[in-house]
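Section 3.1: Structural characterization of target chains.
Under the original work plan, the team committed to producing a structural model for every single-chain target entering the pipeline before any wet-lab resources were allocated. The record below documents one such target. The sequence was received from the expression subgroup and is listed exactly as submitted; it comprises 344 residues.
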Amino acid sequence: MAQNIISRCGIAALALATLALGTITLPARAASEPIKVKVFVAAMFEIGENTGDRAGEFQHWYERYWVKSPPHAVKGALKPVYCNDDGVCGAVLGMGKVNSSSSMQAILLDPAYDFSQAYFILSGVAGTPPSRGTIGDVSWASWLVDYDLGHRWAPEEGKPGEPVFMPRKGYESYRLFQLNPALVGWAVKLSQGTNLQDSDAARQYRMRYPEKRAQAAPAVTTGTHMTGDTFFHGPGLSKEAQYIAKLYGADDYVITEMEAAAITLVIKRQFGTDRVLSLRGAVNFDQGNPNETTLQHLDPAPGQTAGGFAETVANIEAAGSRVVDHIVTDWPEWQKGVPPLPGK
């Protein structure tokens, strides 16, 4: 007993001495606690560096929120995660369904982060049918539909003019997501007044298309985003995408992209989909104009591309940051869930 008392006194004296010398570091409890994420912004690719060169999908977000934030490598994720002091985090997930969703899964499982109350903005560039959108548009998804999950066959193997797609049974909960209408409504309301950039090249390119919507100036829109690893193209497959959207009871197909439905499924399995948004900017039409074939549109001659890419990636962040900033500023109101939309 006496030896134990002497031992404890000796340890206590040593601790006091080292504290006085400033050589002991007590554990900081706050440092071990996970970051409480308020908003997570996902981009799919960046062209070069995160800042200072040609901007891809991530650069404008990075320059707004994370220039002073250190990178945090996450095992299993393609790129590091960045977080600022306001709880706004983001990362480049990678292109395509498998690439992006595996990164998202790794990030959600990292104990460094608490996503239990987080909102997600899945952002990137996309295509649009000329009857529903134009170059420079930014679109909030009301529905996400997986384009690939089903059966397809060659047109000559079916009846002329009939669809060549049939949904596969068993994928009902994987292939279709209706995003929270109240949250989508907030996103549209907050971003509708955004001053969207445009370019002379994009204006000239639009005039190749006869559709009024294709010729219009960029706008904030909403509708179904079609997710497909298949980079479908041409009026026939665009018509098929619209057919699938209607077959599933979703809104008009307005955006073709490669990741959102897959990422949303990963988030759904842990946190549901009530706090998920998909934001896309249109940088191309999903088909050629009446004077070119689909292959000519996919492989254009020099100087014949759409233009407007730089302006569109800026538009994505300009519209999306309005939603991010609103949620963070009014966090006490948003923390427990999406507030009711104010009356008109």
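Confidence is low (pLDDT under 50) at residues 1-30.
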